[in-house]
């Protein structure tokens, strides 16, 4: 089970001002179920995924994976635990095939 508990994310916008992206989000994702996070452009969907993966560091709250608090783990450590981020449009490397 993946649990997000009271997650908030504030980032600096292009003007250097604080912008609240996620406010006090709490949600539980049960193992073996499929979830969809929907909403308008700029609604924070990608930011939620990046916080879960550790690409963004939340300003408050905790993340638990199977009862273990993982908020302090970096991207590589989270990936070893099975948390990965799949890009909508994967990066392409010129001259390489899928098998490379």
Beta content: 25-35%
Number of domains: 1
Radius of gyration from the alpha-carbon trace, in angstroms: 15 Å
Average of the residue pLDDT scores = 91
Largest sheet: number of strands, sense, barrel closure: 4 strands, antiparallel
- Uncertain regions spanning at least 5 consecutive residues: none
Number of strands: 4
CATH second-level architecture: 3-Layer(aba) Sandwich
Give the topology string: H per helix, E per strand.
Answer: EEHEEH
What's the helical proportion of residues?
Answer: 10-25%
Task: Note the gap between the termini.
Answer: 34 Å
Overall geometric form: globular
Task: Explain what this protein looks like in three dimensions.
The protein has 100 residues and is of the alpha+beta class. The chain contains two helices and four strands; from the N terminus they run E-E-H-E-E-H. The protein has one domain: P-loop containing nucleotide triphosphate hydrolases (Rossmann fold), CATH 3.40.50. It has helices spanning 45-53, 75-80; strands at residues 2-12, 18-29, 60-65, 68-69. Strands 2-1-3-4 form a four-stranded antiparallel β-sheet, with helices on one face. The chain is globular and about 45 Å long. It starts with a strand and ends in a 20-residue tail after the last helix.
């Amino acid at each position: 089970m993946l649990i997000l508990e009271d997650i908030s994310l504030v980032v600096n916008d292009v003007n250097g001002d604080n912008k609240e992206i996620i406010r006090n989000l709490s949600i539980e994702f049960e193992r073996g179920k499929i979830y969809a996070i929907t909403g308008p452009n700029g609604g924070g969907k990608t930011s939620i995924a990046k916080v879960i993966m550790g690409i963004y560091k939340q300003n408050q709250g905790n993340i638990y994976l199977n009862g273990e608090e993982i908020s302090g783990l970096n991207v590589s450590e989270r990936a070893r635990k099975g948390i990965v981020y799949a890009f909508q449009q994967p990066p392409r490397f010129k001259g390489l095939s899928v098998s490379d």
